[in-house]
Amino acid sequence: MEALDTLDRFFAEQMGPSSQPFYRRLMAHSRKGHLCMRSGEDIVSEKMDVIRDKNRYYLHRNWVLETTILQQLQRLLQSAPKEIFERSAFSVPSQLHEKQAEAVRRVLTQSLTVVSGGPGTGKTYTAGQLVQALMMALGSTPLRVKIAAPTGKAADRLAQAIVPMERLQVEAMTLHRLLGLQPGRCRLFEERRIDADLILIDEASMIDASLFAHLLSAVPNGARIVLFGDADQLPPIDGGGIFADLAEMLSIRLEICHRTQDASVHNIYEAVRKGHVNPLYNLLEPLPQDLIGWIESILGNLAFSEKPAMADLIERFDRLRVICPLRKGPLGIDAINRALLHRLQKRLVPGQWWAAPILVTNNDASLQLYNGTSGVVLAQYRGGALVRGFEEAFISDGRSFPLFQLPGYEIALALSVHKSQGSEFDQVVCCLPQGSEEFAREALYTALTRAKKKIRLAGDQTTLDAMMNTRSRQENGLRERMEKITLP
User: Fold this and answer.
1) pLDDT (tens digit, 9 = 90+) per residue, 399-424?
2) How many helices and strands (H and E) does the chain possess?
3) Where are the beta strands (DSSP E) in 197-247?
4) Which of 92, 137, 130 is nearest to 147 (CA)?
5) CA–CA separation, 230 vs 276, rounded Å?
6) Quick check: 207 and 175 in contact, CB under 8 A?
């Protein structure tokens, strides 16, 4: 943090002695993901790039992003989509519940639709039924559908809900690929448009303000865009909290859980979402002193006498994952994964096969590999270091690369909460070591809602209480500034 504090001091010193504390707070506020800081102070200076709007102060970049989002929301909310469907032939599928049906009807008539809901409430199913309903009412032209999400896995999962039909053109990809974004490059003012009639975006809660500004700006006039997401999840790392506000103002919220195989799991989701900690006490178990050994026993054997089938490995790693809020430190995810690999290496003998899940951590458009793409590394142990870079990495879409060719990767036997977003596992083991109390309820909710069938929660009551009593909502001025817009 020392380097950041130095930047804060440099920034504040440009303002003069009386304003320095204010501007240091503004910088710190921005680093935490807030687009603006509310203050009753009267700060005026022409030396620094700071924007004031009533009682809200913005760094100039954040003001531009929020203003762009606001302008694009206004454009989409006040313009009608192209009439490429025959309304008399349009019919809402009878199997949809009331809110799902409402979402499908809204897409027919509006350019922007927001659908929010927790896990198991049928967001993906609704998307599939939406496309079928639109296809039944389609005129003579094909329907061009683009599906995207912050991670390729989430986009592929949504695409799998779409039934192939004649004259239906569907393409799924990451948001960065959809928008043609490269690290460090802003394309807000290039007026690039997505070539699609219908744009379906999943895991919208993960989209930060910059990505939201790029996305909404790229929606062509006449097209329809549908944002699916869970507003109660962890806000995006780079900030803005845009989807949470859009969900409150514009969304159709799906609340009926359709995962009937284990209602107790859904009850845990709801308890965390609403801040009810008592049901979690019954789930809580002590964190073992030998955390690595305990996790190792849960994961099971990762060494094989014969080369395992890749399909079996992918299925196995999708069944269970360990998730922890901490990234750094002796009990953080980085240290846990290193320790697990070290223990695996000590048990291996030359000739044995070993495997571990991985995550791509950087983007490489030439290889069509993007941050968050999942895969599995599989190799035969030759002695010495376990990972040398020549091991084969199998990506979730079926392609394979030598590890050294990936733009960046990390072993993912255990996942941080942020990295777990967009994923689903049959069982989640959530560890809350000391230090997790610095995280908020949304982090716990995000971790536990990755589980479809079973949840294990390990930690102590003090840490759990601290997380449940803290919220991580990011501040922006979107709600106040949208008051002038006539909402649908």
Assistant:
1) 999 999 999 999 999 999 999 988 88
2) 18, 20
3) 198-201, 224-229
4) 130
5) 18
6) yes
Site of tokens 């329809």: 224
What one-letter code names the amino acid at 145? V
The residues, ordered by sequence, that sit 6+ positions from 93 with a Cβ below 8 Å of its Cβ are 101, 104, 129, 132, 133
Spatial contact of 375 and 358, defined as CB atoms under 8 Å apart: yes
3-state class of 353 per DSSP? Answer: strand
Placement of tokens 């993912």 in the chain: 412
Residue 462 CB burial class (10 angstroms; 0-12, 13-18, ≥19): exposed
CA distances from 443 to 67, 294, 383, 412 (A): 28, 23, 39, 18
Token readout for 291 is 């955390």
Whether 146 contacts 199, CB under 8 Å: yes
Is residue 135 within 8 A of residue 197, CB to CB? The reply is: no
Tokens of 488: 């649908």
* 323 to 89, 159, 263, 413: CA distances (angstroms): 47, 26, 22, 9
Cβ atoms of 188 and 136 closer than 8 Å: no
Q: What is the CA 85 to chain-centroid distance, rounded?
A: 32
- The token pair at 110 is 């509006």
**Are the CB atoms for 413 and 359 separated by under 8 Å?**
no
**Nearest to 68, CA basis, from 220, 240, 209, 207:** 209
Question: H/E element holding 316?
Answer: helix 310-319
Residue in the block written with tokens 């379906």:
200
Q: E-assigned strands of 154-262?
A: 168-174, 198-201, 224-229, 252-254
**Of 120, 130, 151, nearest to 257 (Cα)?**
120
Global pTM reads 0.88
Element (DSSP H or E) covering residue 356:
strand 353-360
The CA angle 134-71-100, to the nearest 5 degrees, is 30
Residue-wise pLDDT for 323-380, tens only, equals 999 999 999 999 999 999 999 999 999 999 999 999 998 878 788 887 788 899 999 9
Q: Using alpha carbons, select from 133, 148, 126 the residue that is nearest to residue 225.
A: 148
Q: What is the DSSP letter of 322?
A: E
Contact 48, 23 (CB under 8 A): yes
